[in-house]
Amino acid sequence: MTGHFDPSPTTTTQFHKSDREGIGYDRTAATGDGFTELYAPATRDAYESLANCPEELLLFLHHVPYSHRLDSGKTVIQHIYDTHFSGAARVAEMRTDWEGLRRRVDHRRFTQVHRQFGEQLTEAAKWRDTLTAYWFELSRIRDEHRGGWLQAIVAPADTALLGGERNELPVRVVNATGSGLRTVTTLDVPEGWRSEEATAYVASREGETVRMTVVPPPAPALATLHALPRSGAVPVLDSSLRSLARVVVVPPAARCVHALDAGPASAPVLKDYTRLSPATGWHEGAGFGWVGNAPDATDTGLFDVVRRDYVRDSAPAVLRLTLPAGRCTAHLLTGGPNTFNRSLIVRVDGVEKARSERLDGREFTWLRIPLDGGASGREVDLELSSKEDETWHLSACVVLADGREGV
């Protein structure tokens, strides 16, 4: 599964229109966008009426409170909880049923399908935890059929961390049970990272934000962090998955030969980094800049200060850098907050050195480019391009002297 198929309700609110009062897209003529007027009068009147609207189209045509009663007698929010929990349970039952055929199916086919059921079970749990946690956080209405749960969300969903330094990562701990709980939250971090647990009392149906200390390695990186709360035997939903809790690690500017945050001149810039905008033209003594045609720039306002904006173009552009003596490495961050991205191709002095894979929306990657400043330093040209009729993106360019990545 790629990130494109992960649950992400926070980035699709334009479709489900969820807020603290309710859920659904109001397409009525009376209070919504008037979509129902496109139908013949009899159909229009049925769709316009909350009482007569077919239930399978309810949330497509109406914005209703979470407490709205369905024909089954359940509320909308309880239907959301029940269907996601029962869906995940059904996948587990399907895998058990398949295991009962072990001696009736050839080994290769049995093993392949069993593995696929395992993957489906993981995905079903991810969708269950992500979506039930999301709509509980909005509605604050407890699940009537289960005892409740704890959930923790890395917030903001996407964060820039400084490598090799102590960072405070905000984590939202939410209590979906019927009583107040003393909670202890840890971070599941990659190897080589350090983090400290945080304790907090969280009232029933409320949330508390704890600030968790985390120290990533110095080198540029991307990582998925999971916040894991606990309080006795209370069940925990892995709701950190709903935002993918994807963080970008950048080295502090003081460790870098160049620390460039790419984007429009008016957009926010990472602390102590230098803006690389379309207006950053090369001139003697500048240290870096565009040679010839400069790219365009976009600020989406999404994600953290590093990934929210970028320079981009369908035509090649040349970024000239001044290098000190000796070997160093350029790290180029490419990707996009909301749409899939084409490859970024990087050539140095006309020779291709790196090429990113096509990325789905909200995905990023660092490209690593070895460089050599020679005995006394020199200027080097990075040509940034993509395939014909495609557009490349650049969010950041970091140059580190060899040996500095692990300092």
From TrEMBL:
Gene3D superfamilies: Alpha-glucuronidase, C-terminal domain, Galactose-binding lectin. Residues 4-145 form the Glycosyl hydrolase family 67 C-terminal domain. Residues 1-26 are annotated as: Disordered. Transmembrane segments: none annotated. PANTHER family: ALPHA-GLUCURONIDASE A (PTHR39207). This is Glycosyl hydrolase family 67 C-terminal domain-containing protein. The lineage of its organism: Bacteria, Bacillati, Actinomycetota, Actinomycetes, Kitasatosporales.
